[in-house]
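Cross-check.
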Amino acid sequence: MRRAVAVLLVLVMLGSVVSPAMGATTAKMKPIPTTERMELHKNINIIKIDPALENATPYWIIIAAGSMEKGRAVTFKYIDSSTSLTKEEKIELKKFVKELWKKYRVKTIKDGNITLITLNSKVEINLTQEEEAMLDKVVQAVNEYFRTKYGGVIGILWNVDTHQSIIYISCKKWGESDYYCGVARDHADDPDYWTQVPPPPRYPNWLWDFIMQVVHSWTHYYNPDWGIGSAPSETKYYADTAKNKYSSGYKYSAFQNLGYASHFMTDVGNPLHTGLESWQAVFKDIHYAYEDYVSSNWESGYNFKSVIENNWYYYAINDPEQATKDLASYSHQYDDTIFWTIYWNPDTWQSNSNIKDATENSLLETAKYTLGLVKYVRG
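Predicted model, tokenized:
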């Protein structure tokens, strides 16, 4: 009897030591409705592309560059810097682009912090095969520039550092042990090494190129405007699996599946995983340059990781699939801005405040949804 009482006293004492520490962490957690975004940066200068221009051709950004002197100059810079083009080809390309700008004039319309880029007239873009072939040479020059300057390669830079850090930090904030937080972290990047899932057969070749060459898999993407991509359903499947395992006491499997679920959710926290399919299929190296930028500034430079560490707000999640769609809808607002800014500022975009602010806002929103995902699994 005395032994039983002694054991009970030890357990009570241990509880008095451990519980306050756990409570001190979780007590900081603050649920907020999605209507209260609490963004780090307000009034970011947003670039929006008129769908009539965007959907007319994946080469629209070259056509739109003719709207301002800066755009014209940077396009010529891409052409002149190419080591794959002869001097004669460069002259011919620049002459062609000048004529194209005269044929399809573009204008900008500013309304507050939003700039709309649209065609200057009702003339429809109807490129000939010869024009597309010439534009493809310009595209190759652009990709060559970014590949040479930033070492762009098909990689998973956003997907390793950010995926693993975000889920580990999120689990720790809910008071889970280092061990189980580590399980979630170590499995958060696994989906990048799984067999790639192509888009359904009914979709065009450029979407296939975007999915398989840029974002790696149909499961790592969701476009909220079109309602396509299976990242939301993947999040739900693995989150529900994790939740069932957790409630049944199988914690290792629970956190393994939580790591998987978090991967698909945080994928769409990257604006470039939520749209711009045809552009990114063409200008692949701009996508890679942006992911490298996030990775390079994760723990140094802008220290994007601190955005995750300093956040204690979360969204209560009842449906992981819908939550993933909501996150994609938020980050999607910045995709035009990021892509356009990088194209127009090939040498200075990494210090551009709009790029930094849009990235930090997207990461903060991702942090809030991921904290909600962990809570959903834990019940």
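The two ends are 36 Å apart (CA to CA). The mean pLDDT is 89. Passed to J.P. for a second look.
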